[in-house]
Design a protein that fits this description.
This protein is an alpha/beta fold and 373 residues long. 46% of the residues lie in helices and 12% in strands. It has 18 helices and twelve strands. The strands form two sheets. The protein has a nine-stranded mixed β-sheet with strand order 1-2-6-5-4-3-7-8-9, with helices on both faces. The protein starts with a helix and ends with a strand.
Length: 373
Amino acid sequence: MEDDLEYAYFLTRVDKLGNARIRNILFRIRNLYDLCNCTPADLRKVEGIDINLAKEIFFAKRKLKEFSAEWEQIKSNAYSKGIKIVCILSDKYPVNLKNIFDAPVILYYKGDLSEMDRYSISIVGTRTPTEYGKFICEKFTGIFSELKIPVVSGFARGTDTVVHKTCVRNGNITYAILGSGVDIIYPYENKKLYHEITENGAVISEFPIGSKPEKVNFPRRNRIISGISLGSLIIESGMKGGSLLTAEFAIDQNKEVFAIPGYINSGQSEGTNDLIKRGQAKLVTNVEDVLNELENKLKPILKKESMVKESKAIMELSCNEKIIFQAIEYEPRHIDLINETTGLPVSDCLVNLLSLEFKGLIKQLPGKNFMRI
């Protein structure tokens, strides 16, 4: 409701009030009229509001007309740009996010929010993924899309971009959580993707319209990525970065955390391997690992018989096919290395590699590189 939004905005303009305290006020004192009739003593009955904060709210009421004028300007600016605004009191507000500590009181978005977001899974990773990371990202996101499970990510370069593009390609709902205002496209090379996402879900931000992509914004937006979702899957991550921060937020929010293991000498997998080693993330090798863990929460949209099996078909391989298949890893391997490892002639390698590709067990990459699927 419009009145709820104005009420919430007024509280965000009160000094020293954070999201958690504002939510406590909103759910106890249901409208701005009632708040204006509260005394400091009444306000102190709200959890987290001490005498000093009660006075701040009481004195802020003197600026009500000023804040109301500000809000009208914000609304006008938003609607002129096709931007929608939702308050935590609204039924449209993402239900999973509503239940976390420090949930944003107001969200700005472009596109459409869906009740299906209660079944969403977030996928994040490094801005410089390996070919292995890109492939795994496309594979997992593609299967989630087939199952109509919404996928959330952060619109950053690299893994996040792969997530959103895969969802768009498969016609699946995807939410991009921005570290800027909804009207600011960053990175700008994702301009086309930005508009495609608004047709398949929404771009979302807690930051006011016009907010620049400041460095300090991105850690805060990561709690929204994990908060909207049932669980977070970390594809690849170094020992520092937003992906690990998203995992930390998910843990604090009592959400599931999943991680794809990687090579021990790969810098892009140091963070994910460490999460697994410390027991902070569940090791994932296929989509079923995620679905089984979230089975109870996904039951309304997944039938048991639709649970996905690993995409590799069970089939009989010839002797040479088995030798070659065993020589191929989930990281790209050049034909010369496969030839050296197997001891088979290059011509035999190429014939059997083509056969394995037809059987859906491997994938050929540019430059005569091959990797497992």
